[in-house]
Amino acid sequence: MAKFIQNEFHKSAGTSAMLAGAILVPAAVAGHLAGGGLITRFKMETPAILKLCAVSSFLVACASPLLLLRCDNMPLAGTTVPYHYDGLTGGQVQSRNLNSSCNSLCNCQAEFYSPACDIGTGVTYFSPCHGGCILNERTTNFTQMYTNCSCIGENNTLTDGVCPTSCNKLAPFLGLAFVMVLLVFLSHTPAAVVTLRIVPPSMRSFAVGLEWLFMRALGTIPGPIMYGNFIDSTCIIWQRKSCGDVRGSCWVYDSAGMAITFMVLSIVGNLVSAAFYGFSLLVYKPPTTKKLPVLNGHTVDTNRVSDLPLVNGCAAQSNGRPSMSAHINHGFVHDDP
């Protein structure tokens, strides 16, 4: 989520990580507590719990298009807008190229991303070098300024950092993300309860271990690799190391492409989860219940001492356990001889 916030809303890495943590941790805790609370409050049986898990996953899939709530790509010279873009007329980039005739003599490299902003047009340059700047100076408020920039218009001055945007979609996105994360974790506790209920007590430890094995093998281990490959497919500027022109990490992602990628992965993953929960509900067979004896019109659970009839003021027992062979005869209880 931190990378998503950083790219879609043009925030710094530190700010994005802080916002992601402020959303993920409380939402995950609330989801776990809500899942366990619903089971306790409504005394849910196994079929009801499976329905809860399926509905939760389905709701997350339905809410996934909210990931398209994003800001537009920032105007970045040579990638999303052409060089000499005035910020007013529409500009289309014929081919993504950070180098231009205005900075051809600067021998600029794409090894380090050091964005600089043209305040007049709102266009960000990959680095002051790509803006054709020759001089730099530090102002009284410790802001780095770059002057004599050949790629800039009348102002011919750049300031350090990405240009600020007027996009105000971050707050509603964070609120909706909180709800989505809560729904994701809502099914975690109920799913664990189902695992413990559907196996014999002697097999519960093995069942939990097997469950975690599949979670690691199918989710935790390949998941980050798969997500990373899909995210990298939306990259528009790669780091190019000077030694042998080796490709490094991604500097800038396509905003629309990343949002669509996250949405599709979320929809597919949660629909698959909902389908498996539904399949589990179809094949689930409730355990058979043992018919209990009746004493004076009331059902007697012979596994509970409090339900057993008394013999000389004590519950009928056999070998330290409630006797299963106590007979009822005219209101009196006697053991088998």
UniProtKB/TrEMBL annotation:
Supply the source organism's classification: Eukaryota, Metazoa, Chordata, Tunicata, Ascidiacea
> One Gene Ontology cellular component annotation?
basolateral plasma membrane
Residue ranges of the Kazal-like domain? 96-153
- Asked if the record carries the keyword Transmembrane, the reply is yes
User: Which species expresses this protein natively?
Assistant: Ciona intestinalis (Transparent sea squirt)
Q: Which family is annotated?
A: Belongs to the organo anion transporter (TC 2.A.60) family.
Instruction: Give the molecular function GO annotations.
Output: sodium-independent organic anion transmembrane transporter activity
UniProt entry keywords in alphabetical sequence? Cell membrane, Disulfide bond, Membrane, Transmembrane, Transmembrane helix
- Give the matching InterPro entries: Kazal_dom, MFS_trans_sf, OATP
How is this protein named in the record?
Kazal-like domain-containing protein
What Gene Ontology biological process does one annotation of this record name? sodium-independent organic anion transport
